[in-house]
Amino acid sequence: DAGVTQSPTHLIKTRGQHVTLRCSPISGHKSVSWYQQVLGQGPQFIFQYYEKEERGRGNFPDRFSARQFPNYSSELNVNALLLGDSALYLCASRSGTGGVGGNEKLFFGSGTQLSVL
Amino acid sequence: QQQVKQSPQSLIVQKGGISIINCAYENTAFDYFPWYQQFPGKGPALLIAIRPDVSEKKEGRFTISFNKSAKQFSLHIMDSQPGDSATYFCAASTSSNTGKLIFGQGTTLQVKP
Fold first, then answer.
1. How far apart are CA A94 and CA A32, in angstroms?
2. What is the C-alpha separation between A72 and A5, in angstroms, rounded?
3. Which residues of B touch A111 (CB under 8 A)?
4. Which residues in chain A show pLDDT less than 50?
């Protein structure tokens, strides 16, 4: 079975541009989360979506937005790129049905490496 | 109160030795504690996870020890192998929302042959 797939794998943009990153969750998974991982640090939570609704947002500016589609795939959009947005952007999925006490393992894709010049 | 602090930042262990990585959390609402392994150019992969109703969980060579009163948990890698060389992250969340993980800063492990 395919894992979490992300595209593109690498991307180079210049300051001020806009970028769209895409994610396909594991088949059957309804919940998608986005994380930003700056080199040498742990991933930081950006967004979580479940059944196409935003279910959580981390401490990121409004330049960051996301959405989830009826097939549970997701897009992360970043506007007005800054040099500091250079990072590995990770998408993760889980089934979303476990709830309290459930086995809600979170599976990550390999990420999109974004470089802002 | 949302932080998870991880130590050491880097670790060098001889093949066959025991690797120990420690984490501490502040938010008492956290009740799900996974460990992830990450190789260069790859996303984090779930190794093992624990909930606070048990003090220890073992899967193969990997063991999590959990101390609820101290708000600390640790990963032990027994019989460490060169293939274990990677970056390890602890994380925490509430069990009702494991999609929102708070990660530690990471530990780079090098296992020497």
1. 7
2. 12
3. 42-43
4. 98-101
| pLDDT of amino acid A32 | 94
Closest to A76 measured CA to CA, from A30, A114, A43, A27:
A114
- Ramachandran area for residue B111 (φ above 0: left; ψ -120 to 50: alpha; else beta): beta
Nearest-by-CA chain B residue for A33: B99
Contact B101, A107 (CB under 8 A): no
**Separation CA A93–CA A96 (nearest Å):** 8
Token pair 């530690």 is found at B104
Cβ atoms of A18 and A3 within 8 Å: the answer is no
Return the DSSP state at A36.
E
Q: Which residues, including other chains, have CB under 8 Å from residue A84's CB and lie 6 or more apart?
A: A116
pLDDT at B1: 58
Residue B47: C-alpha distances to residues A52, B38, B61, B63 (Å): 29, 10, 11, 10
A102 to chain B, any CB pair closer than 8 A? The answer is: yes
**pLDDT score recorded for residue B63:** 97
pLDDT of residue A2: 81
Contact yes or no for A41 and B97 at CB 8 A? no
Kind and range of the H or E run holding A33: strand A31-37
Mean pLDDT calculated for residue range B27-46: 94
